[in-house]
Amino acid sequence: MNLRVGLASIGFATCLLGCGLRTDPDYSPVCVDNTVAGETGETGGEPLAPRIGSCQDPIDLPTGQNIVVRGSLGGCSGTEGWCGGSGAEDVYRIGSVVGDVFVDFRPEETNFNPVLRVVRGEDPCLEGVIEESEVCADIVNSVPGRGFYDQGGDDTYYIIVDTELGESGDYAFDLRFGDNAFEGDCLDAVEDQAIELMAGGNFVWEATLDAKQGRLDSSCSAPGDEDIFTLVLTGGGTVTASVEVLEGDIQPIVSLRDDCATASELSCGGLASANFGGSATTYLVVDQIGANKGRYRLTVDFF
Length: 303
Fold this sequence. Notes:
The protein is an all-beta fold and 303 residues long. It contains one helix and 19 strands. The strands form four sheets. Strands 1-3-10-5-8 form a five-stranded mixed sheet, with no helix packed on it. Strands 2-4-9-6-7 form a five-stranded mixed sheet, with no helix packed on it. Strands 11-13-18-15-16 form a five-stranded mixed sheet, with no helix packed on it.
């Protein structure tokens, strides 16, 4: 299924071909979407109708159905997130499902670098604070998508394709749901340092997490920056992993999992453990609740 939307505002200029930033030299340093602000038209004093695709009139997408969405952006901003997005945006609404949701931009059909935001709540016009943000990330060709784990319930999610002020262009993204939504997207972010343990083995690691969006989510709700390790176990036993804060305002957790899909997660928390009946290769992730910068110490035991 394909879905296409039109320009975010009038005055859209033809974009340069190819992926990358496009900055309009004629933009004003202050630019607000008047239809979102509730201004009146030139005649009759009636408020302007919200633009379809604005935060006041989001576009509904079929929940749980894999589709391709195409659109064009250019103009002024109606809402902004903690990671940016000072330009025009298109806002889409989906209902809640239990499982992974992934937004994967198509570089060959997207000729600017979007800011992807996913917020949870009832009013996408509010400032996209980190506490209500599932995703807030600059999209680049090398990492064209981001995903999140929806734990189900009555929540409403808004997928926001945003720009920085002065940018404009066409975009297209695949929206995927379910256990295969990530499609191995995290695997290129795995650390070169593997954790290799035999029975009685111990591993200690210290590193820094940055204040940015991560590549994975967790049933513990951990959208922030993470470190992903390959965990190689020789023989059967129990893995126990814990993480502590050394400096900074972070809330780190450990996730033991078989792949990028949240459904493959075996255990998560400040202390995580899992039993293995024999030799295995899996993944250990040091993730964080929120998206702050700080240093941690990871301790892993296998017995």
